[in-house]
Specification:
alpha+beta; seven-stranded mixed β-sheet; 417 residues; FAS1 domain; FAS1 domain-containing protein; 24% helix; FAS1_dom_sf; FAS1_domain; 2 domains
Length: 417
């Protein structure tokens, strides 16, 4: 697909009119509107051309106030155009979903972002791509002094130029296009959670999870299933479904910033105990080893044990130093299998997302409000802290119904499928 080289005159006029009108009396006199910003910023010329192809999106964007736009640079879009993903840019619905995923509902400046992860809701609320109430989120964090936004499959986009103000909000120019989080199937496959996925299919609950909204899934690693391999072959379908449902929280998307000393009611009906203990985040006696894997229906946290709803391990989790360190698991006397159970017929992932692990310190830090402070000295002078929202206002725990099932649809290319 060839990007148009000019923004249509009528669209330019409409954008300018909508933005100038919305700023009346807002105290933003002298600040450029989005049309002027995109057309006058050399590194955003490709984005300017792309937005020009979608007048409905452009008009909606012009009418939104207090937003943060994560604007891919020319180099970022060129990388996308030269990848296998380029053909998907002919899918208008996908492109508009992708653009909406780059628009955050709320104004945040780089100085608001610290090591504590913030999960910012975006305008991606098309049920073909997101089943998270309030809009799919993107994770904002500061790593080694750089401001980063983490999206599907833990794609990291680093801010190359922060805090470019315009009349309705702020723009951060990023070096990689965000990745729309995939559905549960594609995400679990790429996260090498194929045993969990295969078990869900064997228990006939995979389709239920795929179509659900606002989920938190504590997904055992393949090694965790292998550790109880001697047991798995003896489980009935109902027993397996009961165990897996004990790993799912329905109606609450609990990101790492929400994990504290508390209990959560599972889809199975019983509670799991979340504990911050001895430098680890525990779910009963299991340890979270990889947090905040976004997917279309919510979030996945990888754990190192399979949870047992019939075990009393939740009451003793605070006394555990490291789950699995003594060779025990929640099922008692079991032995490891030579192969990972439930993986027959599951594809081997071409990419994995185990390299970017949310550290325990970041999860623990998030229990204490930061007030949006940190790192302002390295940011652009365009920052206006008086109009920015604090990190706390961004942390969303959506509940409620969204309607249609989440489908990754045409965006499956982006998950390496």
């Amino acid at each position: 697909m060839q990007l148009k080289q000019t923004l249509p005159i009528a669209l330019t006029a409409a954008l300018a009119y909508a933005q100038d009108g919305s700023d009346s009396g807002s105290g933003s006199s002298g600040m450029t509107n989005l049309t002027a910003l995109l057309s006058s910023t050399d590194s955003l010329s490709s984005l300017n051309d792309l937005v020009g192809n979608y007048p409905d999106f452009a008009a909606a964007l012009a009418s939104r106030e207090d937003v943060t736009i994560l604007a891919p640079s020319n180099d970022a879009l060129e990388t996308l155009m030269n990848s296998d993903a380029a053909s998907m840019l002919d899918n208008d619905q996908f492109v508009q979903a992708l653009l909406n995923y780059h628009v955050i509902n709320g104004t945040v400046y780089a100085s608001n972002i610290t090591q504590t992860p913030i999960f910012a809701p975006t305008y991606l609320n098309n049920s073909m791509y997101s089943n998270v109430t309030g809009g799919q989120v993107v994770e904002a964090r500061r790593e080694d002094g750089e401001v980063q936004f983490v999206s599907g499959l833990k794609q990291v986009s680093t801010v190359a130029q922060p805090n470019v103000n315009y009349t309705n909000g702020v723009v951060h120019i990023i070096d990689e296009v965000l990745m729309i989080p995939g559905n549960l199937t594609s995400t679990a496959q790429n996260a090498n959670l194929t045993a969990f996925l295969g078990a869900a299919q064997n228990a006939s609950i995979a389709s239920t999870l795929l179509g659900a909204e606002d989920l938190t899934i504590f997904a055992p690693s393949n090694a965790a299933f292998q550790d109880i391999g001697s047991l798995t072959g003896n489980l009935t379908m109902n027993q397996l479904a009961n165990i897996l449902s004990y790993h799912v929280i329905e109606g609450t998307v609990a990101y790492s910033s929400d994990l504290s000393n508390t209990s959560l009611t599972t889809l199975q009906g019983d509670d799991v105990q979340i504990t911050i203990a001895n430098g680890s985040v525990m779910v009963n006696n299991a340890t979270v080893t990889n947090a905040n894997i976004l997917f279309a229906g919510g979030v996945i946290h990888v754990i190192d044990q399979v949870l047992n709803p019939n075990s009393n391990s939740s009451s003793s989790s605070s006394n555990s130093t490291s789950s699995g360190s003594d060779g025990e698991n929640a099922f008692g006397a079991t032995s490891s299998a030579s192969e990972v159970p439930f993986t027959s017929g599951q594809p081997t992932p071409t990419t994995t997302i185990t390299d970017l692990v949310t550290s325990t310190s970041q999860v623990i830090i998030s229990q204490t409000p930061t007030g949006g402070a940190g790192g302002a000295g390295s940011e652009s002078d365009n920052s206006d802290s008086s109009s920015s929202s604090t990190g706390a206002a961004w942390i969303a725990k959506p509940t409620g119904a969204m309607g249609a099932a989440a489908l990754f649809g045409g965006a499956a290319f982006y998950a390496g499928m």
